[in-house]
DNA sequence: GTTTTTGCACTGACCAGTCAGTTCAAAAGC
DNA sequence: GCTTTTGAACTGACTGGTCAGTGCAAAAAC
């Protein structure tokens, strides 16, 4: 269903769907390899080989190795952000309140990581690196994701559900970190656990049933 | 001065001898560079230059680039573990209970990260990578650190202070992640905040004053 | 006199990026 | 219909450069 049509219907660009399919294959190959080995240790030859494509094709489709990587990052974080936002909105519609919304976002985060573990790994590994070409891309993209969480927290404070003592940016970062790290640990070191287990543990922590009042 | 190595500390100039001093300088140079650029993107020549040492000296002191890195990891995580354990023990001696011990460990973690940001960054970036030579080293060393947190949680459950519903390994991972990510975010994106601010935010989260009962 | 460091030339592997050439399906010409 | 042309997509050998690691004689430190 993919490549045979060169017609491309109303799509822009001369080649139609073939090109997009190639790019997709390259993304997929790159994300796994870079997550496993890191950006510098992954060669363009490897990416091309894993995608089943010649090296030249990589450079036909992307200006450089790092441009390929940057577009990968943008695409992936876009997906995550959309997923978080959707979870928050749905929860809001169901009228569960702020804590329910946070909980829904935790679950959405876990589902995302479960589905795209390689991307998550790569994101975490690169996020705090300074001195790299794509650093600014990463910062923008990070802020987008954290902002979704901050938005929910802010609403909670405004509505009086959450104490106005809480530090919104720091708390948002901590929550994101909690989910990220717990999920990566789950994938790497306790893959036998179910998503529900992990969600339950994080939920308990969020709701203060670990260190909390009783 | 700013020494962001996790390798400094303890041994004063006198004890180690000339060779040890050289190794320290190499650790310090390597940790910063690798945190900034990643392992593969950092060259041995760079490390030697930053350490103010000839390239041959690197190979006189370490069998290879990756051996240097592995020893760096072991050393750094050793310091972190010791610091966490000490915080937990001191808190236990003061009789503050489990939550106080967890809180003390959070602070110890923050202090460590504040002192050795480069090491922390590098550790997080490498921790979930598969396929690398030092992967097994990392797993051992990670388990050591998480085990300290798990120990405290376990004690809390046994003494009835914590619900026995909590999932100890997952909760420990989540707590570690929370501290790690919040601290790295603090360093990278909100460096103007004080350690106390960050500690307070995390403390609140731990004690359930965010999503918790009231 | 032994250990450690230096300086530097050298090698062999590896790798990002290039480019001249190939493929093939659709459009144009007949 | 059928041949020819076009050009986007793709190919893979090749280049120029980089880098881990070596070898070694001489200096420095202890």
From TrEMBL, chains A, B:
PROSITE patterns on file: HTH_TETR_2
Single GO term (MF): DNA-binding transcription factor activity
Record flagged with keyword DNA-binding: yes
DNA-binding interval(s): 43-62
UniProt KW keywords: DNA-binding, Transcription, Transcription regulation
Residue ranges constituting the HTH tetR-type domain according to the UniProt record: 20-80
Annotated region described as Disordered, given as residue ranges: 1-20
Translocase in keyword set: no
SUPFAM superfamilies tied to this protein: Homeodomain-like, Tetracyclin repressor-like, C-terminal domain
Sequence ranges of Gly residues compositional bias: 7-16
Protein name: TetR/AcrR family transcriptional regulator
């Amino acid at each position: 269903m993919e490549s045979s049509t060169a017609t491309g219907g109303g799509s822009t660009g001369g080649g139609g769907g073939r090109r997009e399919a190639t790019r997709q294959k390259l993304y997929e190959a790159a994300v796994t390899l870079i997550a496993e080995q890191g950006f510098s240790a992954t060669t363009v030859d490897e990416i091309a080989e894993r995608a089943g494509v010649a090296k030249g094709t990589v450079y036909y489709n992307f200006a450089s190795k790092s441009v390929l990587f940057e577009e990968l990052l943008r695409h992936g974080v876009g997906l995550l952000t959309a997923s978080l936002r959707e979870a928050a909105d749905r929860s809001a519609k169901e009228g569960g309140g702020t804590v329910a919304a946070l909980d829904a976002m935790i679950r959405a985060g876990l589902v995302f990581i479960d589905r795209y573990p390689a991307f998550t790994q790569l994101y975490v590994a690169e996020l705090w690196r300074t001195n790299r070409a794509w650093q600014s891309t990463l910062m923008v993209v990070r802020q987008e994701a954290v902002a979704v969480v901050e938005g929910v927290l802010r609403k909670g404070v405004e509505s009086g559900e959450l104490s106005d003592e809480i530090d919104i940016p720091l708390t948002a970062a901590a929550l994101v970190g909690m989910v990220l790290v717990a999920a990566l640990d789950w994938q790497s070191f306790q893959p036998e656990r179910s998503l529900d287990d992990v969600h339950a543990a994080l939920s308990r922590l969020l709701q203060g049933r670990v260190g909390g009042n009783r």
